[in-house]
Design a protein that fits this description.
Residues 6-82 form the PglD N-terminal domain. This protein has 220 residues and is α/β, with parallel strands linked by helices. It folds into two domains: 5-90, 3-Layer(aba) Sandwich (Rossmann fold), CATH 3.40.50.20; 93-205, Hexapeptide repeat proteins (UDP N-Acetylglucosamine Acyltransferase, domain 1). The protein has three helices and 25 strands. It has helices at residues 13-25, 53-59, 72-84, and strands at 5-9, 30-34, 44-45, 48-51, 64-67, 88-89, 92-93, 98-99, 104-105, 110-111, 116-117, 122-123, 128-129, 134-135, 140-141, 146-147, 152-153, 158-159, 164-165, 170-171, 176-177, 182-183, 188-189, 197-200, 205-209. A hairpin with a 2-residue loop joins strand 3 and strand 4.
């Protein structure tokens, strides 16, 4: 079904990227940004009107929403809140992306320009896959994972919920990145990575733990 109206939660950089993808994907759709910053309500960002949540719900009973938030923890919180209001979710898939027929992509995913998702790979809901990422065959990418531009994910890799893979990182075949871990930019991951750690280098090694106070904004 081709949507007539799409609401993009978040009018920052991620939201603007998503909006441009939707303009390519669904050129006839009417787009709105949703932002909790009340000072933005009624303004326009890149020519797209900004609403608050109440205004969105007054327009649609079951709005079609994309949550354009980079921080995976915040993305999860927003998704759960919007789900409780009856929102449904839609993925933004750039027309230049190549998703092979046996691969699957869930709801509220971003698949950026030039992405390749290869045979029998499973992409769960709420996953962010940025520009020119390669995800090879038989991978499992769980909910709320973020893959940054140019990352290369080898065959049969398993990336668990909320993990973040930095730009140009390479994950060799058959390894697992556990829940909530961060792989640094341009790192080469040659072995399994435990949960909630920061790993950098070639080969990637643990350098710190991801604590509750970790400043995710430095990654976006």
């Amino acid at each position: 079904m081709i949507p007539s109206t799409i609401f993009i939660f978040g009018s920052g950089a991620q939201g603007r990227v998503i909006a441009d993808i939707f303009i390519c994907q669904y050129p006839a759709a009417h787009l709105f940004f949703i932002d909790e910053n009340e000072s933005l309500a009624g303004t326009k960002v890149n020519g797209i009107e900004v609403l608050n949540i109440a205004q969105m719900l007054s327009k649609e009973n079951n709005p079609m929403v994309h949550v354009a938030i980079g921080n995976p923890n915040t993305r999860k919180i927003i998704v759960e809140r919007l789900s409780a209001t009856g929102c449904d979710f839609i993925s933004a898939i750039h027309p230049s992306a190549e998703i092979l027929p046996s691969a699957t992509v869930g709801k509220n995913c971003m698949i950026g320009a030039g992405v390749i998702v290869n045979t029998n790979t499973s992409i769960a809901d709420h996953v962010l896959i940025n520009t020119r990422v390669l995800v090879e065959h038989d991978c499992i990418i769980e909910k709320y994972v973020s893959l940054s531009p140019g990352a290369i994910i080898g065959g049969r890799v398993h990336i668990k919920e909320g993990a973040f893979i930095g730009s140009a990182a390479v994950l060799v075949a058959r390894i697992t990145v556990e829940k909530g871990s961060i792989i640094g930019m341009a790192s080469t991951v040659m072995n399994d990575i435990p949960a909630k750690v920061i790993a950098y280098g070639t080969p990637a090694k643990k350098v710190a733990e991801v604590t509750e106070s970790y400043n995710w904004s430095r990654l976006f």
